[in-house]
Amino acid sequence: MTIEGGKKGKLHAVKADISKEVDILNAFKWTSDNVGPVHILVNNAGVAQKTNLTTEGDTEKWRQIFETNVMGLCIATREAVKIMQAKKIDGHIIHINSIVGHRILTLPGRNVYPASKFAVTALTETLRHELRHLGLKIKITSLSPGRVATEFGQNVVTDPKILEEMKKLPRLTSESVANAVLYVLSTPPDVQIPELMIQPMGEEF
Asked: Per its UniProt record, what Gene3D superfamilies does this chain match (predicted)?
């Protein structure tokens, strides 16, 4: 593949279920054995489920959200920090958070998803303090997009009228989110961006 600037690169796909610790550990081992130590970790995996917090609340769906959005993120972060510390790498960890990790929006079907993202916000700040206490120069950033034009969350809202209304709302592109990640990674070693929120023009929170 050709990356920005015309430079050649390789993309390695490794299948892993982020809600299963053994899969995460195997993915890190494969990466270390075949590519090399981790310098950058982007925790992008996330899941939303159609349920609620009241009479139809589904315990298993709640659990799936927290296992992926919180526990999977924590395990992947731990493994990355282990490698960076052992190899003396001043790496960078980016959590793809959400605007709902900072405030609750009045949209249906949210259930425990915002709680999982509020956890990511807290985990980012807690990790920043831990890294500083350990004397590690690993950067940590929480990147919180607003609405993004992807297929994510389409299983949560199924009412045709609501879906049509949502389509009219301003949305970011996935490329915009990727560019925000590149911006954060481009900062010099002495610059830390703990939190970055991005939203489409015209969107209000």
From this structure: NAD(P)-binding Rossmann-like Domain
Question: How many Å separate Cα 58 from the centre of its chain?
Answer: 24
- Interior CA angle at 179 toward 11 and 47, to 5°? 70
DSSP assignment of 42-73, as one string?
Answer: EE------S--SSTT--HHHHHHHHIIIIIIH
The amino acid that residue 5 corresponds to is G
Is residue 17 within 8 Å of 47, Cβ to Cβ? no
Residue 53: how many CB atoms within 10 A of its CB? 11
Per-residue model confidence as pLDDT tens digits over 85-135:
999 999 999 999 999 999 987 766 789 999 999 999 999 999 999 999 999
Cα–Cα distance measured from residue 181 to residue 23, given in angstroms and rounded to the nearest whole number: 25
Check: pTM over 0.85? Answer yes or no.
yes
Instruction: Say how far apart CA 84 and CA 135 lie, in whole Å.
Output: 12
Please name the residue that has the structure tokens 């991005």: 198
Distances (CA, A) of 120 to 13, 65, 107, 146, 175: 25, 12, 20, 15, 22
Q: Are 50 and 109 in contact (CB under 8 A)?
A: yes
- Helix, coil or strand: residue 145: strand
Tens digits of residue pLDDT in 145-201? 988 877 665 566 666 665 666 666 667 889 999 999 999 999 999 999 999 999 887
